[in-house]
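Q: My collaborator sent me two sequences in one message, no labels, and asked for predicted structures for both. Can we handle them in order? The first one she listed is below.
A: Yes, handling them in the order given. First sequence, followed by its structure tokens:
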Amino acid sequence: MNFCKNDYGLSSCPDRIKSLNERLNLYAENKSPSGRNNSASEIESLKNLNVANQIKLKNQYQIQFDNLGNKLRELQITVRRQSNELEKKNEIIVNLENTLAEEQRINVRNRETVETIKAKLLRKDYDIQQYHTELEDKKLDFDRLIRQLKQISDRDNASQNECNRLKNQVQQLQQDLNNEREKLKNEKSNNSYNLMDADAKLKNALNVIKDLEMKTNNKSNPDSNNDGTLEKMRRQHLAQLENLKNKTTGHLEKTRSEMQKLLDLENRSNKSVLAENDNLNEKLSNLVRHVHQLEAEIQSLTDSNNDLSNALNAERERGSRKEADLKNIIKELNDQTSNSLERCVNGAEKHAVITGEIEKYASILDKIENKRSPFQERPRTGECRRNTPRSTPISPECNSKFFNPRENCPKIDISGRIKNLKPNYEIPLTTYQYSFNDLSSPSFSTYARGK
């Protein structure tokens, strides 16, 4: 008989065995397949043939069973070795997944760090803008104070000019007063000299009159002519004296009136000069007080200007230091960003390598999972077929060199499949029993499966 055999040495043609059993049953009923009765010799020959075939099949199946046991032992050894390799590969995959998760966490931390740094930079930029705004305000205040100081300086110069003009007026009035006093002094001296001359002349006239009277009293002249002459002379002298006296008295009165006028003028001049001088002194004192106030304001403005200058210089130094610090921070952040980008690129390359490894191991596991067991039920046909192997789809985004691990990259978890595959390979040979006594045994009809 020709038996179809599969890759494991077992018969895959139960229809032939079934037809043989049907023929034996027909012969046992003493009937041929054509419906006629068989002879005893034919039945005996068929029985002998059946016994020979049973012995032959028994020996053949014993050999096949021994071969199958050896193959099963070899398969167990291979499966154990593959299980150990799969465990090692599973550990490698777990390590790769942990490495990938760590790289993803590092990328997330780097992204959070970059976001934090961006927020800090924005806050620093806002602080710098506020600082520049404060500096502009202080600069405007400084310019306003400078304008006020200039206005005060202009008013101070105008006050100084007014003070100098008033001082010149006072000096001019003092000069005029001195000139008037000199004139009065000269007129006083002239009037004094005139009075002295008039007094001297009056005294001389009185002396002459006394001399004449003495001469007149001492001399006695009997001649009438002499008396008339003397009387005439005496009268002339008296008239002259009277005239001189009148002139002198008028001149004295005139001189006294002029002296009184000069004194009144001097008093009036002194009063006006004193009043003007007091007025000028008051104005001068007011100007001096105003000048002192302006000087105090100038000093205060100068102090405030110095304070503002010092504050502005300090703010400029602080701003320069802040700008230097910000430049250093920006440089450091740029270095960190470049390092983070480099790490991300390296992580992307590692992720691509890990994804390739996972895909390779997944394809191996799919092949192992889709491989049929020798005790698995086959289709009841003369042709031995295998199922189409499955493949785990891998996202194309994960195969790219540059990728975002948080977007469009599914996580591949094949550890469960490895764990589920392990128990299927533990197949002890002692759990399967076979029977070779009867061709219609369920062991043959079900491909020698275990009960």
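Q: And the one she listed second?
A: Here it is, processed independently of the first:
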Amino acid sequence: MDEFTGSVLDVSGRTALLADEQGNALPIPASTSHEGLTPGAFVAVDTERLDGGAATIWVRPAFVSDDDPHALHPGGVRLLTDAERHASREPAASTR
């Protein structure tokens, strides 16, 4: 499982352009509703690589309160804990 946090730069059609913490722009598939993918939103992205070159991508809001022990920067982006990742099986976007 690969994971990163970043922010949404733009959403166009079924593609969202995200910037990771190093400033790299990364395109990912987006759902048609674009829920949670508004420009400027902080997100946590998990990518699970599957057999045959397929991948599943989970995108979730990543803004947290100042007292969250999992925050990378207080009040900013965070990584999901394993329990949070497994508790939610609703991917925002999926490719196969």
